[in-house]
């Protein structure tokens, strides 16, 4: 076992009233290693305090943190907002804005709309065909 683990174990087993003696009452050591021992004693952590934590930090509840960071569904509020508005933009203006935001590449261009073909009908009526038949073939 290392000395630091042994020291921590002894600190945990100490009686709560008995801690470190005041600095004036500690027995001073005179010798070549006295300064190093004093530094080690000064550096030893006290059992009630954790130096790894930030000063004044409060431990938060994990449930509160979960609820705070949980994704919120804004669909209902957004739908109400969108349906509430009565203003409808002019179609020419919306087309202009869309054209400005569109890229120049061919993949960004909308598909070309083919012109609708009208169903082809004959210009001539049945009466015209009968008249032509009579004149061309000589039938009554």
What does this structure look like?
By secondary structure, this protein is an all-alpha fold. The protein has one domain. It is 44% helix and 0% strand. The protein has six helices and no strands. It has helices spanning 3-13, 34-43, 62-69, 75-84, 91-101, 126-137. Its main location: nucleus.
What separation lies between the terminal Cα atoms? 129 Å
How many runs of DSSP E, i.e. beta strands?
A: 0
What is the ordering of alpha helices and beta strands?
A: HHHHHH
Question: What fraction, in percent, of the residue positions are helical?
Answer: 40-55%
- Tell me the radius of gyration: 47 Å
By secondary-structure content and strand pairing, the structural class works out as mainly alpha
Subcellular location: Nucleus, Nucleolus
GO molecular function, one term: enzyme binding
Region (Disordered): 1-56, 99-122
Protein name: Active regulator of SIRT1
Layout of helices and strands, plus pairs?
Blueprint: H1 3-13, H2 34-43, H3 62-69, H4 75-84, H5 91-101, H6 126-137
Protein name: Active regulator of SIRT1
InterPro entries: AROS (IPR023262)
Subcellular location: Nucleus, Nucleolus
Features:
single chain; 140 residues; mainly alpha; 6 helices; rod-shaped
Structure described in brief:
The chain is an all-alpha fold and 140 residues long.
């Amino acid at each position: 076992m290392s000395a630091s683990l042994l020291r921590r174990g002894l600190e945990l087993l100490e009686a709560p009233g008995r801690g470190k003696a005041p600095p004036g009452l500690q027995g001073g050591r005179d010798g070549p290693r006295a300064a190093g021992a004093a530094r080690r004693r000064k550096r030893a952590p006290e059992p009630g305090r954790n130096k790894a934590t930030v000063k004044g930090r409060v431990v938060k509840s994990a449930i509160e943190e979960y609820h705070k960071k949980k994704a919120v569904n804004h669909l209902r509020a957004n739908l109400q907002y969108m349906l509430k508005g009565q203003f409808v933009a002019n179609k020419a203006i919306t087309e202009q804005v869309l054209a400005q935001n569109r890229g120049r590449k061919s993949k960004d261009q909308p598909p070309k709309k083919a012109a609708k073909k009208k169903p082809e009908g004959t210009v001539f009526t049945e009466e015209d065909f009968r008249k032509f038949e009579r004149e061309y073939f000589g039938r009554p």
